[in-house]
TrEMBL record:
GO molecular function, one term: nucleic acid binding
PANTHER family xrefs: DNA REPAIR/RNA PROCESSING CPSF FAMILY
Localization of this protein: Nucleus
A cellular component annotation (GO) from this entry: nucleus
Transmembrane segments: none
RSE1/DDB1/CPSF1 first beta-propeller domain: residues covered: 15-318
Domain RSE1/DDB1/CPSF1 C-terminal: 821-1186
Protein name: Putative damage-specific DNA binding protein
Species, as recorded: Trypanosoma rangeli
Key words of the record: Nucleus
């Protein structure tokens, strides 16, 4: 089953920050590393201004700013990038002629001296420094670790000089640097070795930090300090000397022939004099020291308790015993916290940030008096405590600094005053998520954040409305009008007049007596503040009320009446229609400006500008734009629609006016007013199955589609986006234009019979709401039986269980102290929350049972610091006692518990096996049955499957019982449950050792697709065919026992998936009938969508699609990938290859190995094929087609068309088999008139695509653009 993977919310964690003069001028800039996104900021006097974001086809591990300046100070900083896949890039930034800042690539390559891919968590050290050449130029050098026991040295100038070959990048270097510097400094380093591997001393077991020292007096050399712990856990600082003056030719002569059997072409081992360990610079520093820092004053060693300092004046002394060392204790902390980052201030101070946000300034002073005048002393002072969890710190010249955080918000701070603010909001890593359903609307609730930043994040495609006031028990409202202090509610045949009251709270009071006409329905109401005049348009005429006196009709027509009206107080115009007659009235003089009789009756009308108005016609289905001047009306444009227009709104976007029209057949039409011509056609999109009634949300550049499932249409650069609103069945809406009232909108819900006054907080496609609990929430589960959320909150001593009602989360209720919280035992941690039915039949995922049998199963383990895995656990079952009132929160009542030996991890019910549950304990799956007589669970059968079972997933199907077990080391297993004998048997498994973080199972007919994310940032889908009946006998069970799960799809997501559930970020479920998302927005969706969250704060969606839809989208992806610049040299196809430890890297991927032996060529080809992305395409990259220039879009469409033709021409099997075994990324499309084999002609391809609702060949830019605009709206 193919998939489309898309990012719904970009990662917000900041893995690092650097600053520098990246544009070559005096303007300081800041770069933030956001995994696969680089954000650029500029320092201003008061804050930091965001400039641009750069999306990379890589997951960045490290980022360093490197200075390249000549002796006159001319030059710029460049940026070193190191990816998780061990790719290295050097990039620079420059402004183009249009003023935009571009990223340009100066170097890209792999670490050629590293043969294989290491685990991503092994590369955690990186630092940069400078050295002086023989020509007295200062050049940068970078050292980083990929595996333990060694480091890699990278010569930046040599890499820039050698990249491109034969001076291809010479114009770029001359543009970025002075020609003299590029020629005499950079290009002279061309023959130097780029990467050199250096081995550390065997005694340095645990390397914690490293830093370059100040520029060494010796030319072409640098000093590197290493902070490490030895075998006895004592901590020391060693010093290494690095020789950077030997080129490639000299290195081949000087290298040690330790391995003479290797060919001479493999110059991959370090030269004997490249990295030399001199001695132990500092011995026996603080045992838990974790950070090194070097500045002009000297060397600092930072630990949780002490700061150790060695002055640069004495650093050259070779004797460790005689070297003067200054030590100072930090102020005591309430808990053990480590320093995580630091930076040198211009005032000879050191700014140190600890893990808990504490900021300490360490001052270096010379002792003026006493026994040792001139001796360096340290003074600590606590500045402030930041509400974040720092991970990086960078200073800027104007006094600002940026505090980056992986776990919490990234802050800006003025270090001299302590003033700070949020630069980038970060929800933090995700631990768990759950999905709630409210009719057709879906909400995703995730437990995010660590410590004081922890809580719940509500993510949904629904706009948040702040409720200020409400009126209950109101029926049959047809219209609402608000102007000044007056509110008029229209009902069939009459109106009710109300008035706003702001004291003591905002409310609406009905007026028993008023000068307005209450005997007729009110269509619109306008208030003129200068003249203190109300204009009420009723179903029979225009009624005017001046001051507090009586009102009179200035225009009245009892025979025809008024059917439609629209007023604009700012323009001073009123337009209304009576059957086929349309009139425009000046609200100032209340005199008619123009009148016109039409051929067709009017269906709707709206004012578009001071001199134009638009109408929708019955019968013809036309939208007409009229212009009036001096009493004459001229038809300016006429657009034909597929159905009768029933509502219209005018919105402004990018300085152009667009007319959004709701049609009777459920479509909306988006019409640019400037482009309206005679007898043109509108671009329409079906969004619901009822007539579309639109309401203009003034001030938000969006319209609200009224109805049972309300939607909001948001205009954007690429068309429009769809989102929802957080309450149901909005039948009528009105704008409150009164500066004295905080509320701006009134909403009437027909199903709730309530009138709500409030504000729309923010309008965007995916809306977030965070409920802070000031603690880490490790587990969250929505229980539909009681409409509550059950949370596991992590505290130091033990976990705490909380219950939240759904409305408490949606209105951002923050509990200060929960009286119904359940405290677990000391050192007891919650591992799962699962609703079960005691003794239930387990025939479906939503079993119906008596309330007394519905229980909540809570699994816990007892965790101690000295145990790698818990040795004892238990599971507890609770009943939920609902409150007497709707607002009263339910409570948990414990019914019983069962002790378990081992580390309990997960739980699920056993399908079609009455009263049974399955538990994941260590690497085993155990069955437990409910004993109704003793009211206790009894252990039955156990089967060993892996190492640590992370999740159990039941598969519900008639007359069979199967489970899927996900394992943290051994991937996943298909387990058959014999409901007669009560035995467990593994019937299928994945043979690859993949560490599963979380997963789901999709059922499509008789096929089951197991989807999961692993600990290498990959996504996999494993397929299992038709499940055999457990009653089958003979040879069949033997064959089943040997079956393997087949990898059908694989893809590198670039981020670690920590939680995954069936759900959607679309405004409505794909399966709903009210809004036809499934059938019209994107064709070929085969099943429910999957939502996931990551360790870096990102949310995403994975959508299963048909083979035909996938082929079309994949062909577009290949075309877009060739058109989009590969920033930093990182290519999309390489980025999407799955990541595994042990992949060939560096020289192992050299083509010379393949040429040496014909057999090895096929071996290497098969190895690389295992890693290629398969049956998954990037929705993010495909959607970037909409932002490409017109000419580029045309080229992409042609390439995609040829790719599809070429695929069908080379197809010798079914489309599913072709996609499984052929890489579309590497496929070379034929000519546009390629002959298709067999009966699969172009007509046959078009017939297949047409049947699936896809665009047919030849593809056009307009059709592809429309398809991608629709695809954007489902996630």
């Amino acid at each position: 089953m193919p998939f489309v993977a898309s990012t719904s919310k970009q990662p917000t964690a900041v893995l690092g920050a650097v600053s520098g003069f990246f544009l070559g001028n005096d303007e300081p800039l800041v770069l933030l590393n956001r995994l696969n996104l680089v954000s650029l900021y500029r320092e201003t006097d008061d804050t930091l201004e965001h400039l641009s974001d750069y999306t990379l086809f890589a997951s960045l591990k490290h980022m360093e700013a490197l200075p390249l300046f000549d002796s006159k100070g001319s030059g710029r900083h460049v940026v070193f990038l190191f990816s998780v896949k061990q790719g290295v890039s050097i990039v620079a930034f420059e402004r183009n002629s249009e003023g935009a800042i571009k990223m340009v690539t100066l170097f890209h390559g792999e670490v050629d001296t590293c043969f294989y891919q290491e685990r991503p968590d092994r590369a955690f050290l990186c630092c940069s420094g400078c050295y002086q050449t023989l020509g007295d130029e200062i050049l940068p050098v970078v050292t980083f670790s990929i595996h333990s026991g060694g480091v890699f040295l990278f010569d930046v100038a040599a890499a820039i000089a050698s990249y491109g070959g034969r001076g291809k990048n010479a114009p770029l270097l001359d543009r970025l640097f002075s020609p003299d510097y590029a020629q005499n400094v950079l290009r002279k380093r061309k023959k130097q070795t780029l990467f050199t591997q250096g081995h550390l001393s065997a005694s340095e077991l645990d390397v914690r930090s490293m830093a370059f020292g100040p520029s060494n007096k010796e030319k072409n050399s640098a000093v590197l300090y290493i902070l490490y712990a030895d075998v006895s856990s004592k901590t020391h600082v060693s010093v290494y000397f690095i020789d950077l003056g030997v080129n490639e030719g000299q290195s081949r002569v000087q290298k040690k022939p330790i391995w003479p059997w290797l060919p001479d072409t493999l110059d991959v081992f370090p030269r004997g004099d490249m990295l030399r360990r001199r001695d132990v610079f500092l011995a026996n520093v603080e045992t838990n020291a974790c950070l090194l820092h070097v500045n002009a004053d000297g060397l600092f060693v930072l630990g949780p308790q002490l700061v150790t300092f060695v002055s640069s004046k004495s650093a050259g002394n070779s004797s460790t015993l005689s070297r003067p060392v200054t030590t100072l204790a930090f102020p005591p902390f309430s808990a053990y916290v480590e320093p995580v980052c630091c930076a040198s201030l211009p005032t000879r101070d050191l700014l140190i940030l600890f893990w808990d946000g504490t900021c300490i300034k360490t001052t270096v002073k010379e002792e003026a008096e006493g026994l040792n005048p001139g001796k360096m002393v340290l003074v600590n002072s606590i500045m402030l405590s930041l509400r974040t969890i720092p991970s990086s710190l960078v200073l800027l010249p104007r006094g600002h600094c940026v505090v980056g955080s992986r776990m919490a918000h990234t802050l800006w701070m003025k270090w001299f005053t302590g003033e700070s603010g949020v630069l980038l909001e970060n929800c933090g890593p995700m631990f768990d998520l759950t999905v709630t359903l409210d009719g057709p609307r879906v909400s995703v609730v995730a437990s995010t954040g660590v410590g004081m930043s922890g809580g719940l994040s509500l993510q949904r495609s629904a706009v948040n409305v702040r409720h200020d006031a409400s009126m209950e028990n109101i029926l049959d409202v047809t219209r609402m009008c608000a102007a000044g202090d007056v509110v008029i509610l229209s009902f069939p045949g009459y109106s009710r007049v109300c008035q706003f009251q702001t004291t003591p709270t905002l409310s609406i009071k009905e007026l028993s007596e008023s000068p307005f006409d209450k005997s007729k329905e009110t269509l619109t109401l306008v208030y003129d503040l200068e003249r203190d005049t109300y204009v009420q348009v009723t179903s029979v005429g225009v009624y005017v009320v001046k001051g507090g006196g009586h009102g009179t009709y200035t225009i009245r027509n009892d025979e025809l009446g008024i059917h439609h009206a629209n007023a604009n107080a700012h323009l001073g115009l009123l337009v209304f229609s009576s059957s086929r007659y349309v009139s425009v009235v000046d609200l100032t003089t209340l005199l008619s400006k123009v009148s016109i009789e039409l051929e067709n009756e009017v269906a709707c009308v709206t004012i578009t500008s001071l001199y134009t108005f638009a109408i929708g016609e019955w019968n013809s289905g036309a939208v007409c734009l009229y212009e009036f001047h001096d009493g004459e009306v001229v038809l300016k444009g006429r657009i034909l629609c597929s159905a009768t227009p029933c509502s219209m709104c005018v919105l402004s976007h990018l300085h152009t006016s667009r007319l959004v029209v709701g049609l009777l057949n459920g479509c909306i039409a988006d019409i640019p007013l400037e482009a309206m011509t005679m007898e043109g056609a509108a671009q329409e999109t079906l969004i619901r199955m009822q007539p579309v009634q639109l309401f203009n949300l003034e001030g938000h550049n969006a319209v609200l589609c009224l109805g049972e499932v309300p939607l909001i249409v948001i205009l954007c650069d690429t068309g429009f986006q769809l989102t929802g609103i957080d309450f149901n069945d909005v039948a009528v809406c009105a704008v409150i234009d009164n500066p004295r009232i905080a509320s701006k909108y009134m909403f009437f819900s027909r199903s709730e019979n309530a009138l709500v006054l409030g504000n729309i907080v923010d309008i965007k496609k995916l809306n977030s709401r965070f409920l802070g609990l000031n603690a880490t929430v490790t587990r969250v589960k929505y229980i539909a039986w009681w409409n509550v959320f059950v949370l596991a909150v992590r505290h130091n001593e033990k976990d705490q269980m909380l219950l939240l009602m759904e409305h408490e989360l949606t209105i951002a209720w923050v509990p200060q102290k929960d009286p119904v919280a359940i405290e677990l035992l000391e050192n007891e941690r919650c591992v799962f929350i699962e609703p079960v039915v005691l003794g239930g039949a387990n025939e479906s995922a939503t079993d119906t049972a008596r309330d007394g049998d519905k229980t909540l199963l809570l699994g816990t383990t007892f965790a101690f610091p000295d145990e790698q895995l818990p040795r004892s656990s238990r599971f507890i079952w609770y009943s939920v006692e609902e409150g007497q009132l709707i607002s009263e929160r339910p409570q948990l009542r414990q019914l019983g518990s069962k002790d378990v030996e081992g580390a309990l991890q997960c739980c699920c019910v056993v399908p079609n096996y009455s009263g049974r549950i399955a538990l994941g304990i260590n690497g085993c799956v155990a069955l437990y049955s409910w004993n109704a007589a003793d009211l206790v669970f009894v252990a039955e059968e156990t089967v060993s499957v892996g190492t640590i079972v992370t999740r159990l997933q039941p598969i519900f199907q008639p007359d069979a019982s199967y489970l899927v077990a996900f394992d943290a080391r051994q991937s996943c297993f298909f387990i058959q449950v014999d409901t007669i004998q009560g035995s467990l048997k593994i019937v299928a498994r994945d043979t690859e050792p993949r560490g599963v973080m979380d997963g789901v199972v999709l059922e499509s007919g008789k096929t089951h697709d197991i989807c999961f994310g692993d600990d290498y940032y990959n996504f996999y889908s494993l397929s299992r065919g038709a499940l055999p009946s457990p009653s089958s006998s003979g040879a069949a069970p033997v064959a089943v026992a040997r079956s393997k799960l087949k990898t059908k799809a694989q893809y590198h997501l670039g981020d670690m998936v920590t939680a995954m559930q069936l759900g959607s970020f679309a405004p409505c479920l794909l399966e709903n009938t009210a809004v036809p998302v499934h059938s019209t927005l994107i064709p070929g969706i085969l099943g429910p969508q999957i939502v996931f969250g990551t360790s870096h704060g990102a949310f995403g969606t994975i959508t299963p699609v048909s083979n035909e839809t996938y082929l079309l989208l994949k062909a577009l992806e290949v075309g877009v990938a060739s058109a989009v610049p590969a920033l930093g040299g990182f290519e999309h196809a390489t980025y999407r290859e799955v990541l595994r430890a042990g992949q060939e890297r560096g020289y192992s991927r050299n083509a010379s190995f393949e040429n040496a032996n014909p057999v090895s060529q096929e071996v290497f080809r098969q190895r690389r094929k295992r890693y290629l992305s398969k049956c998954v395409c990037s929705g993010d990259l495909i959607e970037s087609f909409l932002t490409l220039p017109h000419a580029t879009q045309e080229r992409v469409v042609r390439e995609a068309d040829q790719c599809i033709r070429g695929c069908f021409a080379s197809m010798k099997s079914t489309l599913e088999e072709f996609l499984e075994h052929s890489g579309v990324d590497k496929h070379i499309a034929g000519e546009s008139d390629v002959h298709l084999n067999g009966c699969m002609t172009v007509d046959g391809v078009n017939a297949l695509f047409f049947e699936k609702g896809l665009p047919t060949l030849p593809l056009t830019r307009e059709v592809v653009k429309d398809l991608l605009q629709k695809m954007q709206r489902i996630y």
